[in-house]
Specification:
mainly beta, 5-stranded mixed sheet, 16 strands
C-alpha cells in the first residue's frame, strides 16, 4: 500500500553542500565507510493517535514493547501459534519472541485502567529487536518525562539537520563533518527494496541515523532504464515525512550520473516505514 503523507517536503540538495556536489555520484559511500563507531543502543518511540501501530517482530529474538501501564493482550490463533514466548510485566513492559515469520495480524492490547491499543503485528527474519516505547497523552506523566528526555538528547534537531548530516556523511570530506549531539547511526538492511513505483529505478538503503523521534535513511538510487529518469516523490512507496534527492534526476542506466541518493525522513525505523 502506498502511504505518502501530505506533509512531505521535497528539496533538491544541489546547492546545499557546496563543493560536496562535485564528488562523483557513482562513488556513493558503502555502509562500512559511514560508520564511525559501533552504534549505541537506540530506543524507538511511537505516539498513540488512534491509528493501529505497526509492530514488526524479529524471528527468534526477543523484542520489548513498553506500554504506559500494565496490559493484557488479545490475539488471533495465527499469532499465538507463531509466538515462541510472551512475557508481560507489571510495569507495562511486554517481552515478545516470534517463533516463525507471519503476515500482519490485528492484535488488541488493553491496559489495566481500560485504555486500548490496536497493533498490526507481523514477524520477519530481518526485523529490528530495538525496544519500542508507546507514548500516550492519556498518561501525561509518562509523556512529559519522555518528551523532556528526547529534547535533552537531540538538541532540537529537525528533519533538515538530519538530511544535511546524512548528505555530508555520503558526499562531504570526512574532515569537515561535525558530530551532532543526540544523533546516532543505527543498522539498516542494505538489500535492494522496490521503493519506487514503475521499476525505472533500483533502490537500496545505505545507512540510517536517528535523532529523537526522527529517522533519516540514505538510499542509493540507480537508473534501471535506457532513458534519463526525473525523480518523482509521488512514486515513492512507504510512509515518509520528507523525501530529499541529492539530484533531481539520474542519467540512463550505465551512463555517467546514473546513480544518486535519496534521503528519506520518517518517524519510524526504515524497515517499519518502508512498504
Amino acid at each position: 500500500m502506498i502511504r505518502i503523507r501530505v506533509r512531505m517536503r521535497v528539496v533538491v540538495l544541489s546547492g546545499l553542500l557546496g563543493l560536496c556536489s562535485l564528488f562523483s555520484v557513482v562513488s556513493l559511500a558503502s555502509p562500512a565507510s559511514v560508520t564511525d563507531r559501533a552504534p549505541r543502543e537506540v530506543v524507538d518511540h511511537v505516539v498513540w493517535q488512534n491509528i493501529p501501530i505497526r509492530l514488526v517482530l524479529p524471528v527468534g529474538r526477543e523484542r520489548r514493547i513498553d506500554f504506559p501501564a500494565k496490559v493484557k493482550i488479545e490475539w488471533p490463533r495465527a499469532v499465538e501459534d507463531k509466538t515462541q514466548r510472551l512475557q508481560i510485566r507489571e510495569n507495562g513492559s511486554v517481552y515478545w519472541t516470534a517463533a516463525a515469520p507471519f503476515e500482519s495480524q490485528r492484535v488488541n492490547v488493553i491496559t489495566a485502567t481500560g485504555e486500548t491499543y490496536l497493533l498490526n503485528v507481523e514477524a520477519r527474519e530481518d526485523a529490528s529487536a530495538r525496544t519500542l516505547v508507546v507514548l500516550d497523552d492519556r498518561f501525561p506523566v509518562q509523556e512529559a518525562k519522555a518528551t523532556q528526555k528526547r529534547k535533552r538528547k537531540t538538541a532540537s534537531l529537525d528533519a533538515v539537520d538530519l538530511v544535511r548530516h546524512a548528505a555530508q556523511m555520503l558526499y562531504g570530506p570526512r574532515r569537515v563533518v561535525k558530530a551532532l549531539p543526540g544523533m546516532v547511526q543505527i543498522p539498516v538492511d542494505t538489500q535492494d527494496l522496490p521503493l519506487y513505483k514503475g521499476g525505472a529505478l533500483r533502490t537500496s538503503p545505505i545507512a540510517q541515523w536517528k535523532a529523537g523521534a526522527l529517522y533519516v535513511t540514505a538510499v542509493r538510487v540507480t537508473a534501471d532504464s535506457l532513458e534519463p529518469v526525473e525523480l518523482d516523490p509521488r512514486l515513492l512507496r512507504g510512509d515518509w515525512i520528507s523525501a530529499t534527492p541529492q539530484h533531481s534526476w539520474v542519467a540512463e542506466s550505465g551512463g555517467v550520473g546514473d546513480t544518486t541518493a535519496w534521503y528519506l525522513v520518517s518517524d519510524r525505523p526504515f524497515e517499519e516505514a518502508a512498504p
